Amino acid sequence: MKIDSKAIKELADLLNETGLTEIEVADGDKAIRISKGGTVIASANAPAVNMASDPALPQKASLDTPTSAPSSHPGAVKSPMVGTVYLQQDPDSPSFVKKGDNVKAGDILLIIEAMKVMNPIKADKSGTVTQILVENAEPIEFGDVLLVIE
């Protein structure tokens, strides 16, 4: 198996620049996934790199994600991607939603920045925001519970 060291270095630099903790690039049946979280995952014929052992790289603290997140709650809104969560359009704007707000299906709840693309996360159902489990500009992982709508 030939490992493309240059591609791995470029991906590692991209992780550091964006604040992401994981990135994956695929080309046909080959894929490279780089994670700063300590997990190494490889696809068929794919080199994988574990960057967790490099002390020069910033590591995400395990306390960043609330441990009491109600992931089994039917109104839990989970992150569909790895990135940075933003609760408002820009620093001078009000938050999209606050605890206690009533939202309708399709309302923007927050934005997740991934690979320098702003991805609006919309409510999939109407209800009341009962919990907001993330803070503005916080790095998040796929599947993290962001907020709860009841």
Summarize it:
With 150 residues, the chain is mainly beta. The protein has one helix at residues 5-18; strands at residues 22-27, 30-35, 48-50, 76-78, 83-86, 102-103, 108-114, 117-122, 127-132, 138-140, 145-149.
Search tags:
150 residues, mainly beta, OB fold (Dihydrolipoamide Acetyltransferase, E2P), 2 domains, four-stranded antiparallel beta sheet, 11 strands
Describe the structure.
A four-stranded antiparallel beta sheet has the order 4-11-9-6, with no helix packed on it. Strands 8-7-5-10 form a four-stranded antiparallel beta sheet, with no helix packed on it. It has a three-stranded mixed beta sheet with strand order 1-2-3, covered by helices on one side. The protein has one helix at residues 5-18, and strands spanning 22-27, 30-35, 48-50, 76-78, 83-86, 102-103, 108-114, 117-122, 127-132, 138-140, 145-149. It has two domains: 5-50, no CATH class; 63-149, RNA polymerase II/Efflux pump adaptor protein, barrel-sandwich hybrid domain (OB fold (Dihydrolipoamide Acetyltransferase, E2P), Beta Barrel). By secondary structure, the protein is mainly β. The longest helix has 14 residues, at 5-18. The chain contains one helix and eleven strands, in the order H-E-E-E-E-E-E-E-E-E-E-E. 9% of the residues lie in helices and 34% in strands.
